[in-house]
Design goal:
heterodimer, A: 340 residues, alpha/beta, Rossmann fold, Alpha-Beta Plaits, 2 domains, six-stranded mixed beta sheet, four-stranded antiparallel beta sheet, 12 helices, elongated, B: 219 residues, mainly alpha, MetI-like fold, 79% helix, binds adenosine-5'-diphosphate, binds magnesium ion
């Protein structure tokens, strides 16, 4: 369990200072894959580095497994860190050590016996699918394989928390998939809290159950992935959603739209059971409006369908208002727009 | 064959003296210089065991010693040399200034080698809860190993150069031979032989160092 309570972090550089975090609160439970998404410079890395106290908060509380980190001595903190695994964008493996020795490091640091180390490392090599690479050096591995080593190393000490700082950002899409699948498997196999930060929406979409959207040192939206991305309230969140959910209307449609002159346009978002067809049918049956579907798209997040639609309603203004209210009552997120 | 006043035995003895001076001062210079180099890295602002005090004393002291040419250091510390080894002439006496000369040099080179280590590695080490000693032993030194080999290669070659001046305090060695026979007695043969020996020595050490460095990098 990870909890941040109204955390501030200010970096001082001589005269000037940078407020990297300005009052951030979040809570990730065991079993969660909690994603933090935001553009570069939003403060994501700063946030994740607070959880294992690579950075100390200027103000506020960082609570890990129910214990505030500021109560620990330096020595105690080292032991706490041993239960927090971390993986990095650029892997940070030791070039001078073999895959086996890299994975063994956390165990060597706690002075485990050779046979204990061999057993655990062998197990981990198997788990991440690198049993045949034990004797290789990082230089001889692909990016995906390096990250697997990083993951195995992070898991060596049986952590209850796994921190991932842009763990897939240096990887190609296909490798990203396999690493995400591995992280998901970790979450299903071990009792662990995973906190991952990313600027890629696809990462959140594929494995996270909770998400926080960060901008400028604050969290602008957070909650279940489905709730946040099903009905994004903030422009930045929308922008991220757009990267995985195509909801831009083809230009040919826009052309005809212009030609037809003034009709009212609506953007609709359907989540899960409020499947689109019955709702649209109901709209047509109950209201004297002409419905023109300009664009429709389906995306799957967290095994739930997310529908996206742009429609044009033609009819009396009053009836169109009623129709819009009807859609809202059906649990559809609806927004009137001037243009698409 | 050119006329010469020295024997093969003299050359071998000189070579032995050079190797002794280089070997012993490299050993003691490293025993001093390596820990100092590590201190410079871990004690610097933002280092693993940041210490303003240690860094702000160590850094200028090393600079001061490093700014003295060996020949000056050699004579300047004669009283100290006499205190340490009870004599101020001979091979043993030459080793004291050589150590004082090379230790700060090694410290700087080690510092540079360690600073080259990817900061991400240190972040990983810190995230694992490694103690400062563990960071140095399990992360910094192994990662800098290849670079450290080249550091010691450079230090060794620098020492060979410095030993040539050790003749000033009767330290002997190849350089002494070159000056007292080759230069002062116009013995061209000695001059050529000593230059060749030094050349082979330096080349040999450099290429062994390079090869070991490459091997450590697994190239
Ligand atoms: N160690 C540091 N010293 C000074 N400023 C920093 C430091 N780390 C991050 N920052 C600043 O804090 C802000 C947030 O950075 P970061 O947390 O790395 O963002 P992100 O990971 O979202 O890209 C940026 O403006 C960055 O320049
Ligand atoms: Mg970052």
């Amino acid at each position: 369990m990870i909890e941040l309570v109204d955390v501030y972090k200010t970096y001082k550089r001589g005269e000037s200072s940078i407020e990297a975090l300005r009052g951030v609160s979040l809570r990730a439970e065991k079993g969660d894959i909690f994603g933090v998404i935001g553009y570069s410079g939003a403060g994501k890395s700063t946030l994740i580095r607070l959880v294992n106290y690579l950075e100390k908060p200027t103000k506020g509380q960082v609570i890990v497994e129910g214990q505030p980190l500021d109560q620990y001595s330096v020595h105690e903190l080292r032991n706490v860190k041993k239960k927090i695994g971390m993986i990095f964008q650029h892997f940070n493996l030791l070039e001078s050590k073999t895959v086996y020795d890299n994975i063994a490091i956390p165990l060597v640091l706690v002075k485990k016996s050779k046979s204990e180390i061999r057993q655990r490392v062998t197990e981990l090599l198997d788990f991440v699918g690198l049993s045949d690479k034990a004797g290789s050096y990082p230089k001889e591995l692909s990016g995906g394989q390096k990250q697997r080593v990083g993951i195995a190393r992070a898991l060596a000490g049986n952590p209850t928390i796994l921190l991932c700082d842009e763990a897939t950002s240096a990887l190609d899409p296909q490798t990203t998939q396999s690493i995400l699948a591995l992280l998901k498997r970790i979450s299903e196999t071990y009792p662990i809290t995973i906190l991952m930060i990313t600027h890629e929406m696809a990462v959140i979409q594929q494995i996270c159950n909770k998400v926080a959207v960060m901008e400028d040192g604050i969290i602008i939206e957070q909650g279940n992935v489905l709730d946040v991305f099903g009905s994004p309230r903030h422009e930045t969140t929308r922008n991220f959603v757009r990267t995985v959910i195509r909801n831009t209307v083809p230009s040919s449609v826009i052309q005809t739209l212009k030609a037809e002159g003034q009709r009212r346009l609506f953007k609709l978002e359907f989540i899960g059971q409020s499947a689109s067809e019955p709702v649209i049918n109901g709209l047509i049956r109950n209201y004297n409006v002409q419905v023109n579907i300009l664009f429709a798209n389906m995306t799957e997040i967290q095994a739930t369908t997310l529908g996206n639609m742009i429609i044009q309603l033609q009819g009396e203004d009053r009836v169109i208002d009623q129709a819009a209210r009807f859609l809202q009552d059906q649990g559809v997120y609806i927004e009137e727009v001037d243009s698409v | 064959m050119m006329d010469t006043t020295i024997t093969a035995d003299q050359i071998i003895k000189a070579l032995q003296e050079t190797l002794t001076m280089v070997g012993v001062s490299l050993l003691f210079g490293s025993l001093l210089g390596v820990p100092l180099g590590i201190l410079l890295v871990v004690g610097r602002p933002g280092g693993v065991i940041e210490s303003k005090l240690v860094y702000s004393i160590l850094n200028p002291v090393i600079n001061i010693v490093r700014s003295l040419p060996f020949i000056i250091l050699l004579v300047a510390i004669i009283p100290f040399t006499r205190f340490v080894v009870q004599t101020s002439i001979g091979t043993t006496a030459a080793i004291v200034p050589l150590v004082i000369y090379i230790a700060p040099y090694i410290a700087r080179l080690v510092e540079n080698s360690l600073l080259e280590v990817n900061p991400g590695i240190l972040e990983a080490a810190e995230s694992m809860g490694a103690t400062p000693f563990q960071v140095i032993w399990h992360f910094l030194l192994p990662e800098a190993f290849a670079s450290l080999i080249l550091t010691f290669t450079t230090a060794t070659i620098t020492l060979i150069g410095a030993t040539a001046m050790a003749g000033t305090v009767g330290g002997g060695g190849i350089g002494d031979l070159a000056i007292t026979y080759g230069y002062q007695r116009f013995d061209t043969f000695v001059m050529i032989v000593t230059v060749l020996i030094l050349l082979v020595l330096v080349q040999g050490i450099q290429s062994i160092g390079n090869r070991m460095g490459r091997k450590a990098r697994r190239e």
